[in-house]
What we know:
It contains 14 helices and 2 strands, in the order H-H-H-H-H-E-E-H-H-H-H-H-H-H-H-H.
Amino acid sequence: MLYLLENFSEQVPVFNLFRYITFRTGGAIVTALALVFLFGPALIKSLKVRQGRGQPIRDDGPMRHIVEKQGTPTMGGLMMLAGITVSTLLWADLSNSYVWIVLLVTVGFGMIGLYDDYLKVSRTSTRGFPAKVKLLLECAIAVTAVYFVVQNGHDHFATSLAFPFFKDFVVNLGWFFFVFGAFVIVGTGNAVNLTDGLDGLAIVPVMIATASFGMIVYLAGNAVFSDYLQIHFISGLGELAIFCGALLGAGLGFLWFNAPPAMIFMGDTGSLSLGGALGAIAVAAKHEIVLAIIGGLFVLETVSVIVQVVSFKLTGRRVFKMAPLHHHFEQKGWAEATIVVRFWIISVVLALVGLATIKLR
């Protein structure tokens, strides 16, 4: 919306700033951060009153959680969703299709997560939305988003998969790209959801990945930079940097309240929406494989669950003391803060590796 002020730059020269993506990204960060800071306390207070006993804690999880985390409200993702949406609508060019596509996934996945959280709290149970129905709705939103990404793309490249470290090596997946793209979006949403198990554990890796993709979409959406770096240029993609800025700002605000000991959990409302957003950005930017590198922590957490389930069904034995992976280290006696900070460090290292693929081609 504020982007339109650029049209009056001849009358008011300072309005010329609004044509720059970097300036509006900074504005989106500050706006989302301020919104979460301002309205977060009131939301936490309201949710605490309405939810009473807070988020139900798994009986089969670490016993420490039942004692220490009981009574903490959930649905904290609402404050991030509000901050991201308002900030994006305020600072982004609303004629840009990519902005609306990513917002569709973010809000859509957020609403699915919100209903799931509501069922858990109202029933005082860790069982929420039926898994098959939940997955079906996520897939419907993801396929719709991929369809619009393809419609917004250019020729055969719209359905192609690009490979990092190679300049021109792409594989046209054809109609299968809809399946692949949806898998990336749904998979990332649920991977972040699995990672969200300790105070501050999921939100910082999400912010690290978001900041990385903010840089990627800005470069890939700039004809000069993309040509110099020999990455595929995608017209209009740079506008997603504003969305990434809004997510980063909202994430910072949420971390203030989610830092150990957490005053609120993001719940599925936050984890599904943030993960879905990251997946949608990666699909739009044609950097799906790079997302697997930058978001490698989410991949590790998901793989640990898959390995644990498959091993137990086939052999009756568990590979890990508990899954997802962060619970395994809890059971080994690691302090929560130690696990969280070390996982943050892993996320930083993986992000650096992922960003290196931009230049190493």
